[in-house]
Amino acid sequence: MTNFLIIDDHPLFREALGNAVRQAHPDAVIFETMSIKGALHILAERKGIDLALLDLTLPDATGFSGFMRLRETYPRLPVAIVSSHEDQDVVSEALSLGAAGYLPKSTSKSELAQAIDCVLSGSVAVPKNFVGSSERGDTDFTQALRQRLQELTPQQLRVLDLIRRGYQNKHIAAELKLAESTVKAHVTEILRKLKLFSRNKAVIEIGKISLPVPRKRGGKGESAPLEGGDHKPAEAGGIAKRR
After folding, report:
1. Are 142 and 209 in contact (CB under 8 A)?
2. Residues spanned by the domain of 66
3. Element holding 7 (H helix, E strand)
4. Dihedral angle over CA of 164, 166, 172, 175, nearest 10
5. 3-state secondary structure of 51
């Protein structure tokens, strides 16, 4: 059972968003509020919220102020912004601040459902017309990506290598002996640190370069370099279906 918190001051849109949530997760438990104050109260009373869906304009918050209050109080809570603002700079800022996704209110119900599922899998959902830095022709993108890779922990590098090789989250969990929820958290942090806003984009970009060598779990020594290129996932993993 998945728990959602919808934070929006328009009753009709809360209803529409709730319908989109139930399309992706029929057994979802949905809490609703029209303010950040109400959201903080619900979060204090109800543990185990899996995803918050937040409007940027509320009676007690404007811009990213409400988002930042949620992040400061509950830093581990995934928060996806659902807004009528579709400016690319606003989307970029939201993602740089750590939003789990940015969903325009003009998005269809079926697309919202897909985006919500994407976020819950650990990926970062962005508008279909969003253009990242690499697509904008940034010639330094690969170099910048190599530098960002240095920010990943050894465990995150192992997770990233398995993503690149086509493993699904549950098979990464089995391979690394982790809880699937832990893998999802790693995937989210990997994408944020690398500024790659989809799992599929990570596979494409990381496939072009070699990954840094993660330290062995014992602490001493190094494993073989994690080279780019084609890899065959273990039979249990199969090829992941990517969005």
Report:
1. yes
2. 3-120
3. strand 3-7
4. -100
5. strand
CATH number at residue 224: 1.10.10.10
> How many Å from the N-terminal Cα to the C-terminal Cα in the chain?
23
CA atoms within 13 A on the CB side of 3: 9
Among 90, 120, 150, identify where a domain stops. Answer: 120
Whether pTM > 0.85 for this model: the answer is no
Q: Is the same domain home to 72 and 180? A: no
Spatial contact of 158 and 176, defined as CB atoms under 8 Å apart: yes
SS3 96: helix
Distance CA 106, CA 147 (A): 36
* List of residues 6+ apart from 132 with CB closer than 8 A: 195, 196, 197, 201
Phi and psi at residue 239, to the nearest 5°: -90, 125
* Domain harbouring 10, CATH code: 3.40.50.2300
SS3 percent helix, strand, coil of the chain, rounded to 5, is 45, 10, 45
**Side-chain-facing half-sphere of 201: CA atoms under 13 Å:** 21
Give the pLDDT confidence score for residue 231 in this predicted structure. 43
Q: Are residues 108 and 139 both part of a single domain?
A: no
Per-residue pLDDT of 131-163, as tens digits, reads: 664 444 444 677 788 888 888 999 999 999 898
